[in-house]
Amino acid sequence: MAYETIEHDGILYAEVIWAGTAVPKSRFFSKDDSSFQFGLLAHEAGFIEPAHYHHPVKREISDLQQMLVVQRGVLAIDFYTPEGDKFREVILRVGDAINLVHGVHSVRVIEDMQCVSVKQGPFLGDKLDKVNVDIK
Fold first, then answer.
1. Is the pLDDT of residue 1 over 80?
2. Which of 10, 18, 98, 108 is the most buried (most CB within 10 A)?
3. Could you give the CA distance from residue 120 to residue 125 in angstroms, rounded to a whole number?
4. What count of other Cβ atoms lies within 10 Å of the Cβ of residue 99?
5. Interior CA angle at 124 toward 92 and 118, to 5°?
6. What is the tens place of the pLDDT at every residue in 116-133?
């Protein structure tokens, strides 16, 4: 598996790009209307992207997505229904990347780990950022 989506009851919980995935040219897997674009950049040696900047376009974002790229260690992401029932576990190792999109999830560290973490800002603090859910 190179790219995988984690879905349950019509809700996209996450997107995973597994380590070792290769694409012949740059490819974004997320839907065009997603507030967070998740994909791989790929170019041949010698490619030069012209100097540029991105238009300062005002965007309204109502979800908070978070991407993790595992640099060392092993972790598990557990996914739950809104009622707290676990329906899936994903084990991530070095080089794996996940974009957490919607729904209830938890992170369990299996081996000491370090991840690159990217999410939309500004950071408003844990009280406004996270809603804890009782799991079964």
1. no
2. 98
3. 13
4. 26
5. 30
6. 999 888 778 877 788 888
User: What is the spatial distance between Cα 104 and Cα 79, in angstroms, rounded to a whole number?
Assistant: 6
Query: CA–CA separation, 121 vs 134, rounded Å?
Result: 26
In our burial notation (b when 16+ CB lie closer than 10 A, e otherwise), range 54-77 reads: eeeeeeeeeebbbbbbbeeebbeb
22-42 b/e (C-beta count within 10 Å ≥ 16 → b): eeeeeeebbeeebebebbbee
List, for residues 35-83, the tens digit of each pLDDT value. 889 999 999 999 999 999 999 988 888 888 999 999 999 999 999 999 9
DSSP state of 20: T
Which structural domains are found in the chain, ordered by start?
3-42+62-126 (2.60.120)
DSSP state of 14: E
Q: Go through the chain and tell me how many residues it has.
A: 136
Contact partners, residue 122, CB within 8 Å, separation at least 6: none
Report the distance separating Cα 43 and Cα 24, nearest Å: 8
